[in-house]
Amino acid sequence: MNDYARDAGVRREVAPRHPTPLSRTEALRLLGTVPLGRIVFTHQALPAVRPVNHCLDGDVVVVGIHDGTTLASLTAPADGPGLVVAYEADVIDLDTRLGWSVVVTGYARPVADPDLLDRYRSALRPWVAGAMDHALRIRPGIVTGFRLTAGPPAVTAPVTAGATGVRLPLG
To answer: What confidence tens digit (pLDDT) does each residue in 104-115 have?
Structure first.
């Protein structure tokens, strides 16, 4: 199967790319190099996706939220681990088709501590106008990712269940 890139409006063939799995550490490191991603959550019993800005606090993904958005209405049960969400960010060059993609799946909780929220406000770079009034902390349970390479796929050891991250607690 051929891939194509556009060069001044003309399609040109691009050699196939190969995904190479990333370690949890490398995936989180790469995630920390970009300010934007997409959060996946449940809205009215259906999956929803929104572009948001983020930063890392250790291995916790912090997402900025503006008042009046669907995300601002998300609340986690006080007695539970939080809301199950996924967070994805990537950098893939449209011409070379090289880059990486990372997905973090875990539990999100709104940030209630005003001092912590102030700290996150100064670290986050909003991509839309308006004040960032809220934030969510996503505690990673599963971290996966891959790098797209032009050469043959790297030989790696088989990945076993749970090897890419900490298992989410049941219940």
So the answer is: 999 999 898 999
- Dist CA 6 CA 81 (whole Å): 46
Distance of alpha carbon 161 from alpha carbon 156, whole angstroms? 15
What residues form DSSP beta bridges with 3?
14
Dist. CA 167–CA 140, nearest whole Å: 9
* Residue 68 near residue 129 (C-beta atoms within 8 A): no
Nearest CA-CA partner of 151 in 18, 1, 5 = 18
Provide the whole-model pTM.
0.77
Tell me the pLDDT tens digit for each residue of 1-52. 444 455 556 666 677 889 999 999 999 999 999 999 999 998 888 899 999 9
Pairing of strands 134-149, 60-65: antiparallel
Enclosing H/E stretch for 31: helix 24-31
Please tell me the total number of residues recorded for the chain in this structure: 171
